[in-house]
């Protein structure tokens, strides 16, 4: 269950960090931080897969009825948590953004 | 007509929102509280605050519990028992009062069968929950129709909102509280609207489906064309859909009631381990008396309709019912809405999603007001004034009135009667009068009312917690240490609400231009520490500055 929560959070964080606006906010950067198109795509796909993977985890843990319902509610909550973290504690996402950058960026590092 | 589709949808969204916003907020607020209705019941009826450790112990109905039920329900045409659960540790006994044609209620101790001290209150399940679906307006079912209209409006608002939102994915995670109020309120409106959409849409739709028979009474006649009128068709539908068994009274006294525990065992066998949690004795004492058992649905989303009817004296099988597949789908949809299952994580997620709905409505109002304030003033229009009064009364007003309801519950003596109204009704009056006062105050004070009512909410919430301590002696340390989670949770939520309201009120006082951030913080900030909560709330209460 905890794993499903973490996966949903991770997924939404990846989706948010694939947007330049949020990336700049996380690093308090004044100069534009752009992801290559490929990196952005890979990062978004990973995000969606993580969110999707949370569903079977929920179903295995809680059964089909509760699992599906829980997954829907978890995604709502995880998206909300991601948005509010970006608003009030953007720095918390810095390590994750770096990790994503290492994983997906094929250009020399540009992050501060 | 507006020139483009998007503009006409914007027009629809604005008007549907302004007209139905107050009803929608009231529904969302009461619905959100209903998620914890049983816990509110415990808080408002202190006699039933039994230790959670009792919940796990097996309950025997034969003996003291049945004896008490038969004694209290003497002369009644039926009585029924709801067995204790984790959320309701006491046995709930209800019976029909033949003189007043109403149902009486008492809670019994699950082990000794003793009648627990009763506080006459409608509390969560009797006041807050029905308010959510009928606004307590019974006249010609007007309440149901208003709620149905609001539910329909919610669906319209969700769809039109998606159409008029220009950048759903670009703005998916965007919230900028430090921008000006209009911008920030729109951000938050979009955020809660888009992210919470699955929840809001399903809740509005399932709510409409639950009451489909009220909104489309002709559906009964369509299904049962041979019935002579709508009530007859409805009865036929209910019998086939929900299951029903009735046996006429014999009119002569029968033998003694057989063992209810044996009947429960019989039900368990029929339902392959499923427990009966509702047991009703029809026509007690009569020769044709019979017992109805209903299966618990606390471990599934679907609210099953499994029933078993047995002869009350012999235990002989009379009738059993299991819903048809289509009805099971309806019961799954109802289950999604009613959340009668025991699942704490889901319960909290529903609560938070409900609050996000409240924020959605509140920020909708604020955005409407902020984007028109200047232009209406210039043109000499009164719209802002009227909508502002309505939205203040609908948002902080109803929250404060709810606290007044809790306070009245703690202040009224157990035997309070005033002008022919019983105690439970007086509590309701306290709520309605406070709400009316909030509306009058909002009309009089205008924009300053946002801050003043938010400050009032902080004070009232702390007062409710303090009164709980004074009248029952059960303060937070006691309830937390004793495992009275319902009471502790309620106190903590009240203190949390007070803290957020106090911070908001201070914020509004410093920066009058930002009622929105208030609403934002009012619901999204984490629950602060108890001490800090009390301190800030009291701070706000002691220094009410005029706007």
What's the short story on this structure?
The complex is a heterodimer of chains A (112) and B (547). With 112 residues, chain A is mainly α.
Describe the structure.
In chain A, 76% of the residues lie in helices and 0% in strands. Chain A contains five helices and no strands. Chain A has helices at 2-17, 20-26, 37-62, 64-88, 94-104. Chain B has helices at 5-34, 37-44, 64-72, 123-134, 142-164, 181-195, 197-210, 212-215, 218-223, 230-242, 260-270, 325-338, 344-379, 383-411, 423-445, 448-472, 476-481, 485-510, 515-524, 530-542, and strands at residues 78-82, 91-97, 102-108, 276-282, 290-295, 307-311, 317-321. Chain B has a seven-stranded antiparallel sheet, with helices on one face. The model of chain B is unreliable at 523-547 (pLDDT under 50). At the A-B interface, α1 and α4 of A face α6, α7 and α13 of B.
Fraction of residues of chain A in helices?
over 70%
* Multimeric state: heterodimer
Q: Regions of chain A with pLDDT < 50 over 5+ consecutive residues?
A: none
Give the overall average pLDDT of chain A. Answer: 87
| SSE order of chain A, one letter for each helix or strand | HHHHH
List how many beta strands of chain B DSSP finds.
Answer: 7
List keywords for this structure.
heterodimer; A: 112 residues; mainly alpha; 76% helix; B: 547 residues; alpha+beta; seven-stranded antiparallel sheet; 20 helices; globular
Write the layout of secondary structure elements.
The complex is a heterodimer of chains A (112) and B (547).
Chain A: H1 2-17, H2 20-26, H3 37-62, H4 64-88, H5 94-104
Helix pairs in contact in A: 1-3, 1-4, 3-4
Chain B: H1 5-34, H2 37-44, H3 64-72, E1 78-82, E2 91-97, E3 102-108, H4 123-134, H5 142-164, H6 181-195, H7 197-210, H8 212-215, H9 218-223, H10 230-242, H11 260-270, E4 276-282, E5 290-295, E6 307-311, E7 317-321, H12 325-338, H13 344-379, H14 383-411, H15 423-445, H16 448-472, H17 476-481, H18 485-510, H19 515-524, H20 530-542
Antiparallel strand pairs in B: 1-2, 1-4, 2-3, 4-5, 5-6, 6-7
Helix pairs in contact in B: 1-4, 1-5, 1-13, 1-14, 2-4, 2-18, 5-7, 6-13, 6-19, 7-12, 13-14, 13-19, 14-15, 14-16, 15-16, 16-18, 16-20, 18-19, 18-20
């Amino acid at each position: 269950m905890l794993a499903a929560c973490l996966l949903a959070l991770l997924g939404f964080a990846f989706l948010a960090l694939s947007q330049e606006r949020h990336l700049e906010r996380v690093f308090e950067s004044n100069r534009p931080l752009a992801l290559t198109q490929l990196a952005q795509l890979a990062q978004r796909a990973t995000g969606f897969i993580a969110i999707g993977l949370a569903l079977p985890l929920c179903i295995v843990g809680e059964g089909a009825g509760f699992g599906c319902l829980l997954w829907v509610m978890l995604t709502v909550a995880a998206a909300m948590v991601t948005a509010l973290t970006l608003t009030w504690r953007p720095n918390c996402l810095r390590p994750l953004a770096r990790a994503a950058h290492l994983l997906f960026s094929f250009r020399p590092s540009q992050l501060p | 007509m507006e020139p483009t589709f998007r503009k006409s949808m914007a027009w629809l969204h604005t008007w549907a929102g302004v007209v139905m916003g107050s009803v929608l907020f009231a529904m969302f607020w009461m619905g959100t509280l209903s998620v914890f209705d049983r816990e509110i019941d415990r808080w408002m009826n202190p006699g039933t605050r039994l230790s959670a450790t009792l919940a796990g112990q097996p309950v025997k109905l034969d003996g003291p519990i049945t004896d008490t039920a038969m004694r209290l329900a003497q002369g009644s045409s039926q009585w029924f028992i709801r067995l204790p659960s984790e959320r309701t540790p006491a046995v709930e006994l209800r019976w029909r009062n033949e003189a007043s044609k109403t149902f009486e209620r008492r809670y019994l101790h699950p082990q000794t069968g003793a009648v627990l001290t009763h506080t006459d209150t409608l509390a969560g399940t009797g006041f807050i929950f029905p308010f959510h679906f009928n606004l307590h307006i019974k006249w010609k079912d007007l309440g149901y129709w208003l709620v149905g209209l609001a539910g329909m409006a919610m669906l319209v608002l969700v769809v039109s909102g998606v159409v008029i939102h220009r950048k759903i994915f670009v703005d998916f995670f965007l919230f900028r509280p430090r921008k000006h109020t209009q911008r920030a309120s729109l951000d938050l409106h979009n955020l809660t609207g888009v992210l919470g959409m699955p929840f809001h849409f399903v809740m509005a739709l399932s709510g409409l489906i639950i009451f489909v028979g009220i909104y489309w009474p002709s559906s009964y006649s369509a299904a049962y064309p041979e019935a002579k009128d709508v009530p007859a068709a409805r009865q036929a539908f209910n019998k086939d859909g929900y299951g029903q068994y009735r046996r006429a009274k014999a009119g002569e006294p029968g033998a003694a009631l057989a063992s209810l525990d044996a009947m429960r065992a019989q039900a368990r066998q029929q339902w392959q381990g499923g427990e009966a949690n509702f047991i009703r004795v029809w026509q007690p004492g009569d020769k044709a008396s019979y017992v109805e058992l209903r299966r618990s649905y606390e471990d599934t989303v679907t609210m099953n309709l499994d029933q078993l009817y047995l002869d009350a004296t012999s235990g002989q099988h009379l009738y059993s019912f299991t819903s048809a597949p289509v009805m099971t789908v309806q019961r799954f949809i109802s289950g999604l809405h009613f959340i009668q299952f025991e699942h704490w994580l889901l319960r909290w997620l529903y609560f938070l999603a409900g609050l996000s709905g409240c924020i959605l409505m509140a920020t909708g109002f604020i955005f409407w007001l902020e984007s028109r304030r200047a232009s209406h003033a210039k043109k000499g229009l009164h719209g802002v004034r009227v909508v502002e009064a309505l939205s203040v009364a609908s948002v902080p007003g109803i929250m404060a009135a709810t606290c007044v309801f809790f306070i009245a519950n703690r202040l009224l003596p157990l035997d309070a009667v005033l002008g022919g109204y019983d105690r439970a009704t007086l509590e309701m009056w306290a709520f309605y009068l406070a709400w009316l006062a909030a509306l009058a105050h909002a009309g009089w004070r205008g924009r300053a009312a946002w801050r003043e009512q938010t400050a009032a909410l902080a004070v009232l919430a702390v007062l409710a917690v303090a009164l709980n301590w004074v009248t029952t002696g059960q303060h937070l340390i006691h309830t937390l240490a004793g495992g009275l989670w319902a009471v502790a949770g309620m106190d903590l939520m009240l203190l949390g609400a007070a803290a957020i309201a106090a911070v908001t009120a201070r914020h509004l006082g410093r920066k009058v231009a930002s009622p929105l951030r208030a609403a934002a913080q009012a619901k999204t900030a984490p629950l602060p520490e108890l001490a800090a909560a009390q301190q800030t709330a009291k701070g706000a209460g002691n220094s009410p500055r005029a706007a």
